[in-house]
Amino acid sequence: MVTSAARGAHRGSFARATETRSRWVCVVVLLLGMVLFCPMWAYAQEEDVARFPSRPVTYIQPYTAGVSADLAMRVISKEAEKFLGQPVVVVNKPGAAGAIGVAAIATAKPDGYTIGNTGHSPIFVIPYFEKVPYHPINDFKMVMQFASFNQGVIVKADSPFKTFKDLIDFARRNPKKLTYGTAGTNSMQFIIMEQIAKRENVQITHIPFRATGEAQTALLGGHVLLAAGDFNYSVLESKEARLLVLFREERAAEYPQTPILKDFGYDFPLPMLITVAAPKGTPDGIAKKLEDAFTKAMKEPAFMRAMKEDLRLPIVYRGSKDLTEYIARNYELYGKFLKELGLLK
User: Fold this and answer.
1) CA gyration radius for the chain?
2) What is the DSSP letter of 220?
């Protein structure tokens, strides 16, 4: 005679055995699924690379429309479209000296459909002073560099300042009266101008803007006495403004008569670059397609003509590997520079 306790024990054993078999079945099914699905997933990834791009590519510019880097990006994007077979749409996301736009690049889906220009201040300077939602080295896949750009100090054409020395002399006689605009606090041009003021023992007044294009507009409107940063050749060609000094490490072929900071005894690291960068995790095959397309676009006559004649910007090429190393090296260099200036602990 089987007692109720024994029957209960038997049912418990049966349930446990059934549960165990069910678990093993699930494991087997899962393993079979992985065996069958993984090749399909890998094939899908390869297929995505082969089909890329199948829709327009967004190219983020971290500054306002109309500045020199923005115009250069629009020129090369038009040429790159020929090799990608899809539109490349430049989208402006200015603010925080470029950090807002660069953050948008870093946090985008890493599928190749969102790329951007990392600029200089958001990569080399701002991360040392502010908490930003990206790491300047680790959160990007650098695709290529196609240009550098000119930065410097411009004044209105009717300004009494004829030379850079005139600015310093005015600032020495008139503390805090020399007003200047930049792309924002902690931008590279802000650091440079403040260090010049410190070395010359003068007091100047900084007016921050979202981008140097806005600072340039403020200058032409008479709201500041000078603008420091990149500038449009068109305002020089139209004689609306005058260039007093360049923030370059060497004399510019585009402006051979214009002095550089080294001519006045200032030796600052000045990495200037216009790039194509993607979020980290972007597949290598897609990044290579982008690099190839933009590299070919650099060689197009329309791009070369626009850069040399219309924008007066230097064409500078660095491939993905060289650009990655260049940015890492200069990020470290700028950190040491800022420490030497006493701006970092």
Assistant:
1) 28
2) H
Q: What is the DSSP letter of 56?
A: P
Any long-range contacts for 332-337 (C-beta under 8 Å, 24+ apart)? 333/269, 334/124, 334/125, 334/128, 334/269, 334/271, 335/128, 337/268, 337/269
DSSP bridge partners of 275: 145
Q: Which residues pair with 154 in a beta bridge?
A: 227, 243
Which residue has tokens 């990044």? 287
User: Which residue ranges form the domains of the chain, and what is each CATH number?
Assistant: 55-149+272-340 (3.40.190.150), 151-264 (3.40.190.10)
Question: Which tokens sit at 134?
Answer: 């990206």
- Containing 244, the helix (H) or strand (E) segment is strand 241-246
What the block records as the tokens of 18 is: 């059934």
Residue 88 backbone dihedrals phi, psi, to 5 degrees = -115, 110
In tens, the pLDDT along 262-276 reads: 999 998 888 999 999
| DSSP structure class, residue 38 | H
Tell me, rounded to whole angstroms, the distance of Cα 49 from its chain centroid. 24
DSSP string, 267-302: -------EEEEEETT--HHHHHHHHHHHHHHHTSHH
Question: Cα–Cα distance between 200 and 268 in angstroms, integer?
Answer: 15
Task: Determine phi and psi for 215, rounding to 5 degrees.
Answer: -65, -40
Is 80 exceeded by the pLDDT of residue 8?
A: no
Q: What is the mean pLDDT of residues 245-253?
A: 91
* Average pLDDT score over residue span 11-27: 48
Predicted model pTM: 0.79
Q: Give how far Cα 131 sits from Cα of 126, 191, 206, Å.
A: 8, 18, 22
Helix (H), strand (E) at residue 171? helix 164-173
Question: What are 309's two structure tokens?
Answer: 């004649």
Could you give the strand order of the β-sheet that contains 179-182, starting from the edge strand earlier in sequence?
A: 205-208, 179-182, 226-230, 151-156, 241-246
- Please provide the distance, in angstroms rounded to a whole number, between the alpha carbons at the two ends of the chain: 86
- Average model confidence (pLDDT) across the chain: 88
176-210 pLDDT, tens digit each: 999 999 988 888 999 999 999 999 999 999 999 98
At residue 22, the pLDDT reads 52
